[in-house]
Amino acid sequence: MELTPRLGATVGLLSLIPVAVFALSRGELYVGIALVNVLLIVGSLYVAFTPVNGHEPDGAV
What we know:
This protein has three helices and no strands. The chain is an all-alpha fold. It has a domain at 23-49. Helix 1 (5-14) packs antiparallel against helix 3 (29-49) and helix 2 runs antiparallel to helix 3 (29-49). The relative contact order is 0.16.
């Protein structure tokens, strides 16, 4: 099974479930910061693993 950016983003977004549970149990400012961190990490991974069209690595034949 190949890990596609779409599947990786879906798995990453599943990590919002523990953040939601944490938010409901604490309800403080740092919970919002944790939520932003999770979204930044998921977005960064999605961008990092998205293929770039029309780009060949150096030395490609």
